[in-house]
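Entry: SET domain-containing protein
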Amino acid sequence: MENVEVINGYLQSRGSLVQCALTESKGRILVASRDFESGDVIYTEPPLHIIEEDENSELFRQLEQFALVHDLCYSARWCWCALNSLTAGDLEQLPLRCSLISEGLQRQLLWLCAPDENDSAALPAIQQLLLDLGMTTDLTDKFWRLLQVWKYNSFEYSDDPVASAIYLQASFHSHDCNPNSNWVADEQLVLRARRPIAAGEEVTISYLSDEELFEATMERRMRLRISKDFHCLCQRCSEHWDRSRGVRCRCGSLRFLAAEGSDLSPCDAGCAWPAVEVTKREELLVQLCRQQADADRATRLATAQSFAPAAHQLLPRHWATECLHKWLAEGCATKKEAKECEEKRLEFLQDAYEGAMRNTHTAWVMQSLAMWTLSSCGVLREDPPPSPAPSTEREGYEASDPTGRICETSLRKPLC
Ligand SMILES: [Zn+2]
Ligand SMILES: [Zn+2]
């Protein structure tokens, strides 16, 4: 792992307003060199390197086949990226049909985080792959590191053709479930402050989409474990009561399930109520939302019509109930109903965590609510378009997301 001085030398040469620091708990992080106001651009950064998949390439198909047969936990995509990050010196005379990079570029890629470096379980398969490709196993360690560099640090660059990009500077940010900055990637990655950041404070981003940030702690941790292989210990994940799992007590008051397990926060009226009754039904609701997430709109609407009233009754401040209300709002028969659904969504969202009102997902719901309000007053002739379906693939925000437009307008001016 490259030392902090080298990385800071690189950041200084770019005139960056963030600096790299080493911490015991998180390793390398980026901290602000000066104060930033909410909405300030912290930096813009072009991709260091972009790799496109080539499904027509024989080599790519060979990698897919290999990953399948050997049950390799690293998909063909990451093997392809590693292969295309080798230099002419690495391959010597080998006529592999992949693109080569310069030694300087490879050195910079190797600065990045490769958390499984000491986990040798996949190494025999990697060695076999190199042999199958006619390469020498001397390259095993480097190939293994490059593969992890792409898996853990790359950003989705385009869907068609599928391409991954590495932004060097942005790769040093750690994740937080209430991040203080927000990135948008198009040609360049643009990082903006979500809230005021003081000089010396760590600048964090979210590795989850803005919609996923509203999910329960268990869900967020599971996603981060699968995609980035770490256990999130951010302040929000460390809170005992999970504000994305709000339950209506028998007496009507609002209670919360614990972030881990099934403890229920105490009721003001002192009701004794076994949490297991709630968690069983919660589990069914979560399963339902997961199963129907990719269904067509009519199926999702039918599901939401059947289950949303009961879900709202028992789990009024729950991320899965919010999901049902979203599906309902997409197909509501009347403007009044749509407006009510968006109001219920917003009730949950604005309460779920401290930074929720600066979240793009919230911004979309506020926009939709405002449009339905105007529409039901007769100010707007046409019904508003549905909120865009967020991509499950991208780690941040689509370039078309309204972060810039809405956060800087609607979110600063309360909607009437
Ligand atoms: Zn977290
Ligand atoms: Zn009660």
